Amino acid sequence: MKAFFVAQLRIKSDEKFKEYSIKAAKTISDHGGEVLIRGSILEHLNGEFPFNLIAIVTFPDATKLQRWFKSEEYQSLIPLRDEASDMLLTGFKAL
Fold first, then answer.
1. If DSSP states are collapsed to H, E and C, what string results for 6-51?
2. Are 75 and 81 in contact (CB under 8 A)?
3. Is-above-0.70 flag for pTM?
4. Which stretches in the chain have pLDDT values below 50?
């Protein structure tokens, strides 16, 4: 069953975020993941959130998503991610 993560974020450094995005995309692809959509938030229909960008990524299953997140390749990018953006990652699986 497919698994997904949603990344909600606010960029702090355009240059560092570009570097992070390129490197993170490779780790996602290497683990069987695919970016479904990336874009800016048009409006918050309910509530207040500090993020203005969103991405949805899919993996073949929850195991592959978890292996990607826990991989040495992705974990090594977390300091760069945190310098580049404030990000909330939420993993989920389809019902």
1. EEEEEECCHHHHHHHHHHHHHHHHHCCCEEEEEEECCCCCCCCCCC
2. no
3. yes
4. none
